Amino acid sequence: xxxxxxxxxxxxxxGIGLVDVPTPQPxxxxxxxxxxxxxxxxxxxxxxxxxxxxKPALPFVPGMEAAGTVVSTGPGDAxxxxxxxxxxxxxxxxGAAQYGVFPESGLQPLPTxxxxxxxxxxxxxxxxxxxxxxxxxxxxxxxxxxxxxxxxGVGLAAVDLARALGLKVIAVASTGAKRAAIAALYAPDHVLxxxxxxxxxxxxxxxxxxxxxxxxxVGGDVFDESCRYTAxxxxxxxxxxxxxxxxxxxxxxxxIKGFSVIGVRAGEYGRRFPEHGREHLAAIHRLADEGRxxxxxxxxxxxxxxxxxxxxxxxxxVVGRTVILPWG
Length: 328
Prior knowledge:
Blueprint: E1 2-6, E2 16-20, E3 30-40, H1 42-48, E4 65-73, E5 86-90, E6 99-103, E7 108-109, H2 116-120, H3 123-136, E8 144-147, H4 153-164, E9 168-173, H5 176-186, E10 190-193, H6 199-205, E11 211-216, H7 221-226, E12 230-238, H8 252-257, E13 260-263, H9 266-272, H10 274-289, E14 297-302, H11 306-315, E15 321-325
Parallel strand pairs: 8-9, 8-11, 9-10, 11-12, 12-13, 14-15
Antiparallel strand pairs: 1-2, 3-4, 3-6, 3-15, 4-5, 5-7
């Protein structure tokens, strides 16, 4: 089979290449999937450079999110999976290939309302948004959420999900093209130019109260300023540090202003509380099946064009997710 493989960690993609490798075979508790789509996210880019918190051994096939069709199962009970089942699959690696072996527990049925590319783009981004907004943020209909990096994979998913949860949404993006795309796709209540200099606008849009929730995958100066317009009793959700700087906060600020700073690790939350993890996945799949959320695919590119997909992420020109199609 054809696969993308990282054989060295570099900043210029020189350590990545297409290879021909044997098709893997499933062992006990595993499922072989013919991969039809692999959605790329910012962690996939960082992993090829050795900058992500998880560092798989070299060489490895990148791609944390995939969707495809079950081919076969390993010996023993396969949790009901059968050849031909359309599934979402994922793990730390393995998605950017024509076939992949995944733990049977790591598969979910592909929502009927989504195609393979949309399905591949569903789980990580929307699970992050769900845990942040619904579980940890305890968002209530009518509350206001400000979403930074709203054109990125996890940011755009948060915009879509927040609308489905009945929140008032202020989306923030850096370019006019991104703001236009966000408005056209999900029609948030407001789309602001950012990421900085927003305090007066946010206070004006919220009658001086501030945002009940701030969803921050950017960090750095964006986090620092967000402390100035998170509402009393609000929740500042720390999702990531795309800016590259991990900020610090003097604890007298959330004390005086009466807001909480909450760290969001959706995957780890599900591992520590498996019953909640299953609830979260069921919730986003239900919303997708009902057509209330729909992942946006920025571009669908063949496996041979992987460099274009990674380059667009590095240039931060992607709105939503770019998806690799291993079969062209």
